């Protein structure tokens, strides 16, 4: 039983990944073939020919049609079959499902569920990813673990101290208590940890040039199921925002994750790091990309191990949760609510989409 | 649940594969050990010692007996135990099942089912494989896919255009309609595609020396479950057989496949190419062997992918079939009939065997 | 369903394997983390943090506490949690199970079952392993087979002739009948094979220097489930023990196996060879270590194959057992008795432990 809601928006790819070539990716157990038309639109079809289910991603793109690599069934960007081998008549049922796509903030969002319900959920925003005021580095690591383990991981940053020591972890992260808030209506979870006098980990020391102790604020904003924002504020100790809210002397890093289930036991772990300083400094870009990728891979190694443990548990295992898990537990609750809503009949009055 | 009938003849090996050495091969889920006696007969026993089921194929052949490599239980070519360790008395039940073997047309056929029912089915013939009027190249590729996917593949050659372009495929194959006939009594399926003005693919251009367009006739004769014959006639366009049926100016290639299930998800894909021209030309032999092996491996790659797709389908998937699938659908029907007959009680009056 | 009794003693490791470092090993399906305290005691805890079940073996040992590598939960050698991240209060239920350990005869024995039942079974002795009168070589090979296949293997040494020819096997082993006795009260199985005029296999010829034929006595003593002792006496043919029981002219080799289930399909195959001659001869030590390891690996290869066969058997397979299997069948019976006793309620009157 999948533990995700199909009736939600998920990040399928970075915009830059999709060109006029066939691209295969499985999202929420659904095999997709994606490509960008000559007109610039992103198309997502089920990656199965209707005839003998050969993967269309192993086929050929001719103009804006896909010609199946097995027997030549030809589909347009709506999934409608235009040609079949050895006969003129095209069967009426020869149609490959097409999925709704929205491109926004440099991300390709897909609606895997019922097409007529895609206005039931808003697509959350991450404007830093596509703004001239920020420089962004990014990557995607395949995770052989269920997406809930990554949600757990990101909602509780106390693990930075132990798993990411020498990169982004310092003792203060695990020591400092968190505050957690849940906006039940909007379905957003906020977890904050403000360290006002902390060691500066290499990730920030090298990128900002700060040499002493820092005020380090971590403000998480999780939009289940897919988008995770970590607003990170770094400044020398004592350097607070002005009373009017301006904060010109601090360094701001927007760490963004898109958490997209691939299968019940694997996840696409998209990570992005946007900064509002040293915008043109390639050394800082390279350093942050390399350093953050190392950190993500440390998580991947740990979560891959946890997946085998969770999968192999003999019976229903009893975890122990403490204060640091408040955000993660809230996330589980909201994800469950989304699943139940997704499986239920469509809502009579739909929410307003951002599109 | 296996989808094959045990009470049918299957090709276990090429005759040339079996010598006075122990040879392991699994046929229809049944592990066999094969060897050729000093007298020249092929023996097939279950590949399990009766004592602790050690594979006999990992044992030693001493004269015409197998001595188990674990504790020395010794078996003759009927599977009868002749010796056991530490005692003189041989238990009466110490007997390894032996399977009925027929060698014919350079193939080793085995009857996996009930030994007393082996006359219920005829062994189909492929005389070109062992005739001085033909030169044969052959091979066997392991396929990690259920045998039905290979049957589907071979019964619908329109895929040559898309999967084997540049080898045996040209546009005319997919464009030209087929005619299909089923001999219900004999249980044979005939699929024909006569292209009277077609491009000559490299496979035939290089081997026959024809430089222009050709008449290309494909006459399939499938004897379920195992033997597939493709009578291929190649001649310059307009060059038809004489009224009396002689056809001396054409090139004839007999493409033969033996489709033998190994397990529910793997198949022995035996392929043979017999020709009635350039009999002693080693270059043509090498070219056809290399070219056909490449084509078979293209199928193997595609079918291995399809197997993972079919195996992973969430529910009963609905395929779409069109005219080109008439032969394949008939094959499924005859295979199902064979399974049901094989599982039913033996027929009171048996068919005449070719043996 | 595991086929072992949890309420028995098993060898978890050699004493020499456990130092002041975290060491992971799964015993009877139970993942353990082991280490030796600064005081010299061996500790065994369940290899799972109570919080999010991260393996403690991938964590850090600080003095005699384990600090979880994910979020820093800290445990003492009893499994009691001493610290948790972000808060002072330690939840009362934060405790990792600790397992009872006894070190004896250079072996680390663990009680996997109910802690209050560890006096229901005696730990059998193997004093040669830790005696100045013997020199010992040893090793451990991972076996991808259920432990019962190794019990079968070791209780019936007639396989030495076929699987270990050229190492420890000669024709006489398979030819010579055995005698088997079972001490039902103590739960010990004795299998003896006295060959009074046998070829001397390389294993003994090279290590003892005997060049002619030998008297070779094999006296097996199996203490289910874990400890297997083979008392091997080697002497020139005709050279018998004195009437008073002294046996100074013979060579004695104590071959010891500890058979510890890892999972239902894998086993820790601990092997030890103790000798009472050439005590300081490094060449003999090296030879015996290398030769016995080769023999063990021959078994591993064979049993790994058998595991795939046994696991893949279609239905309940009927083995054939003969005289040589008397010891193995008795072992199966005693192991079954232990399982049933282990699952039953604890005995009201406990046996006396050797501890």
Describe the structure.
The structure is a homotrimer of 355-residue chains. With 355 residues, chain A is an alpha+beta fold. Chain A has 2 domains: 9-117, Rieske Iron-sulfur Protein (3-layer Sandwich), CATH 2.102.10.10; 127-343, Naphthalene 1,2-dioxygenase Alpha Subunit, Chain A, domain 1 (Alpha-Beta Complex), CATH 3.90.380.10. In chain A, 21% of the residues lie in helices and 32% in strands. Chain A contains 6 helices and 17 strands. In chain A, the strands form 4 sheets. In chain A, strands 11-17-16-15-14-13-12 form a 7-stranded antiparallel beta sheet. A 4-stranded antiparallel beta sheet of chain A has the order 5-6-7-8, with no helix packed on it. In chain A, a hairpin with a 2-residue loop joins strand 2 and strand 3 (30-36). In chain A, helix 1 (147-155) packs antiparallel against helix 6. The longest helix of chain A has 31 residues, at 282-312. Chain A is globular and about 75 Å long. Chains in contact: A-B, A-C, B-C. Chain A binds chain C through residues 152, 156, 158-159, 161-163, 174-178, 302, 305-306, 309-310, 313-314, 317, 319-324, and chain C through 29, 48, 50-55, 58, 67-72, 84-87, 91, 93-94.
Structural category of chain A is alpha+beta
What oligomeric assembly is this protein in? homotrimer
Strand numbers in spatial order across the main sheet of chain A: 11-17-16-15-14-13-12
Radius of gyration of chain A: 22 Å
Q: Greatest interface and its residue counts?
A: B-C, 22 and 27 residues
Give the overall form of chain A: globular
- Assign the CATH class of the largest domain in chain A: Alpha Beta
């Amino acid at each position: 039983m999948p533990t995700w809601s199909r009736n939600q928006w998920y990040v399928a790819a970075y915009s830059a990944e999709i060109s006029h070539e066939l691209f295969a990716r499985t999202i929420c157990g659904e095999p997709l073939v994606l490509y960008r038309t000559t007109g610039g639109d992103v198309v997502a079809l089920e990656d199965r020919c209707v005839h003998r289910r050969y993967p269309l991603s192993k086929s050929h793109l001719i103009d804006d049609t896909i010609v199946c690599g097995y027997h030549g069934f030809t589909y347009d960007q709506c999934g409608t079959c235009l040609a079949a081998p050895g006969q003129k008549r095209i069967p009426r049922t020869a149609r490959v499902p097409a999925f709704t796509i929205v491109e926004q903030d440099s991300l390709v969002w897909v609606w895997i569920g019922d097409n007529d319900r895609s206005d039931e959920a808003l697509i959350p925003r991450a404007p830093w990813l596509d703004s001239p005021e920020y420089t962004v580095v990014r990557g995607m690591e395949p995770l052989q673990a269920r997406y809930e383990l990554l949600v757990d991981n990101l909602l509780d940053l106390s693990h930075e101290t132990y798993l990411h020591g020498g990169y982004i972890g310092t003792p203060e992260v695990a020591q400092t208590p968190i505050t957690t808030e849940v906006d039940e209506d909007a379905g957003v979870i906020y977890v904050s940890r403000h360290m006002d006098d902390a060691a500066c980990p290499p990730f920030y020391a090298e990128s900002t040039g700060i040499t002493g102790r820092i005020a380090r604020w971590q403000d998480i904003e999780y939009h289940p199921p897919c988008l995770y924002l970590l607003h990170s504020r770094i400044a020398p100790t004592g350097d607070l925002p002005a009373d009017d809210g301006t904060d010109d002397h601090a360094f701001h890093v927007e760490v963004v994750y898109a958490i997209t289930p691939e299968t019940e036991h694997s996840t696409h772990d998209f990570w992005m790091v946007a900064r509002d300083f040293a915008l043109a400094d390639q050394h800082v870009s390279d350093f942050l990309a390399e350093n953050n990728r190392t950190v993500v891979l440390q998580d991947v190694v740990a979560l891959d191990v946890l997946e085998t443990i969770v999968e192999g548990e003999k019976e229903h295992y009893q975890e122990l949760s403490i204060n640091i898990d408040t955000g993660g537990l809230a996330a589980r609750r909201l994800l469950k609510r989304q699943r139940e809503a997704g499986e239920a009949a469509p809502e009579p009055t739909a929410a307003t989409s951002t599109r």
